Every structure is written in structure tokens, then in C-alpha cells.
Predict the structure.
Amino acid sequence: MSSPETAAHSFTPAARAVPGFMPLFRSELLLALRRRADIANPLLFFVTVLALLPLGVGPEPELLARLAPGMIWVVALLATLLSQESLFRADFEDGSLEQLALTPQPLYFAVLAKVAVHWLVTGLPLALLSPLLGMMLNLPEGGYLSLLLSLLLGTASLSLIGAVGAALTVALRRAGLLLALIVMPLYVPVLIFGTGAVQAAVDGYAYGPQLAILAALLAGGTALAPLAAAGAIRISLDN
Amino acid sequence: MAWQWFHRLGSPRWFYQKTSAWMPWLALASVLLIGAGSVWGLGFAPEDAKQGNSYRIIYIHVPAAFLALAGYYIMAISGAIGLIWKMKLSFVVMRAAAPIGAVLTFIALFTGAVWGKPTWGTYWVWDARITSMLILLFLYIGVIALARAFSREQVADKACALLALVGTVNIPIIYKSVDWWFTLHQPATIKFTEKSSIDPSMFYPLLTMIIGFYCLYAWTLMAHTREKILQREWRTSWVQQLMRGKSMTESKAG
């Protein structure tokens, strides 16, 4: 016998404060972990595109070291963006997104749960992989930690911003390029401060300020982006 | 009722009939102001000590850049009004403002590039303000592309309004970018709070041009909105009456 009350007590107090977050988070994570290929694809994209870079610009170590921070960040941004088109797609097509919108729980937390899972299976592995690619692209050693930290904070913001675009375009056929078009300009501040942090670290300066701004963007994004995405989902369900 | 005018604004018909009277005046004001400002700025304002005559492109560049930014706010605010008060007219204004803003942003970028060649020796630099204008152009294009992608107008309206609102988050960053990563571009020279660093003999023609551009913008926005109203409301009796009346006068004239 488990009444709703005892079931609620099994969650931590923080989880109880956000209605509908934990159950959805768990099921989404389980689903994501079962689709191994979907997790691997953005990472393979990330590695493959960065492997093409030396083939395009030449293998000179100094040149690669100059390009590494920006290139790694841009490709991580593209990998996040490409994986984001399917964020709400399956749920929209089988009708569960509509069910989520109808539940009394705020859609905000449902979006937040989905974005958190998206970040855990794309942004987090991308960030963890980035020092390896930094090494292959001859990034000076001082830049590794800042690259990892800036990508950890930055990709979470990218996932949040991209969720708004994914929610706006979920009702459209072939939304991929349109999603890129509407989301890319919004990625700009994250990209600037992300690469800024790595460049500062490489040049031997403190990169704390850039990380602090990235964290501020993440905090603002967490507060606002799921709201906008929830609104966009309701608009898309009207279509 | 103090709010009556606001509720009236919700009626496309009321808007169409009211603006019919304003259109010629706005057109006249913009022609006079832009005409006077051009002659004054291009012919009579003194030559710049460092830049020579090439600085005169600011008489187009600065008003276009002003309105490119203001146009985004106009688009986003009318989109917000549409979302909050479910006002049909407001969405129409928002949709009309998007292409106008995109064109103004392009004009600002183009005139900036033309001015940059003799002054900086290059058409394009990745300077903070140029880059943020380019991003503004992308924001406008995103709104236009999203509007085109939907088949139902009402959904397109709401989706664009939301995207425009999300984009406004970037506008303060565009403005602040000058201070954040100041590189090549000169700092803003017109300041309303303190003494501006531009000479009055150059400033007054510029001000004339700015006001003229605002009038032209208002006229274009209204003309565009009126056209879209007719397109959307063609089923209603007042539009059909209007069209019949027009075709009758045309056939009489012909």
C-alpha cells in the first residue's frame, strides 16, 4: 500500500518542492540511456569534425594551438544543436507531450527535467571528452581545466536555449535548419565567454570572471528558458 | 473610459480607418525631413577634420542603425502585447515590423562597410558593434523564417512573438557589447545625458535625418500593417465593401 502521501515522502525535500520533476527525470534518463546510439552520435560528430580541422588548415602545431579553443567550442555548440532537434520530437509525435501539458504539474519542471537529461547525455560527455581533443589539437596545457569547466557550464546553457528553439519548431516537418537559424544568434554570448575563458587561461590570465559570467548565464537560463520553452510547447500543440 | 482607446486598438477596422487620415501627413513629414536633412547634411554641414567628406554617410548610417535596434523592440513589444491581451492587430504589427527591421539592419551594415573602406581601410572587421548588428540581422531573419514555416497564421504569430521576446534578451548584450569588448569602433558619440562629442553643425542635420527616418519607419510600418490587415480580414464585410467601393471609383475614373 502506498498512498500518494508516502510516495511523496520517498523523495528528498528538494525533489518534493518541484512537482513532477523527479519521476519524469528518472524515466527520461532511463530512456536516454537505453538509446545508446543517440548518446554516441553527438560525441562522434564532435571528434570527427575536429579531426577534419588539421586536414583542412594543415598540421602546424602553433596554428592548431591558436585555433583549438574556438574550434572546440564551435564544434561542441554544433553537436549540442544537432542533438537538440529530437528533444521533444518523439513525445510530440506519440502525444505524450500533450499529456504532459495537460497535467496539473507545471510544464516548466517537465521541460527542466528533459533539458537536464539532455545535458547529462550530451553536454557532460562532450565536456569530459574536450581535454583529449585539446591535447590532439595542441592546446597549451594551461587551457585544459578552463576548457573543461567552461564547457560544463556553457553546454548546460546551450541545452536550455536550444530547448526553446526545439519547442518552437517541434510541430514543423524538417525543422533542423530552421532550428539552427533561430537558435544560433542566441548562442553567441555563451560562445564568447566560453572561448574567452579558455583563451584567458592559455594566455596565463585569470579566467574566473568569464566562468562567473557563464554561470550567471546558466542561472538566468535556468530561470527563464524553461518558461519560454513551456510557452512554445503550448503554442506548438495548437498547430 | 481611459482604456477605451486601448480596446479600440484591438480592432483592425478601427486602425485601418484611423490611419487612412494619418498616412499622407506621415509621408509628407518624412519626405520633408529626409529631404531637408540630406541637403543640409550632404551640402552644408562642415567637412570632418580627419575623415573628410566620407563621414557624411553617417546621415544614413546612424538613423538606420537607431531604427534597426528600435524596430526590434517595437516588434518584440507588439508581440508581447499580442500574447498577453490576445490582440490581433498587435500580431499584425509585429509581423510587419520584422522585414522592415531586417532591411534597416542591412542598410546600417552596408553603409558601415562603405564608410569603413576609406576610414579603416577595410570593408569588414569583426568589431563588437558590427558583429552585434550582424547578429541582430540573424535574429530578424530567424523571426521571418519561423513565420514562413508555419501554415497557420495564428500559430505563426504566437511563435514569432515568443521568439522575438527571447531575442530581446540579446539586445542589452548588443548594446553593452561596446563596453564589454571595445575594439575598433568609436564609442557612441551622441549622448543625451551628457554633452555629446559631435559638433552642433553636424548634429542638427543628423537629428533631422533621425526624426525623418522615424517618420518614414512609422509610415512603412503602417502601410505594411494596413496591407496585412486587408489580407487577413478579406472575408469581413467592411473589407469587401472597401474593395467594392475602390473598384467602383476606379471603373468610374476609367
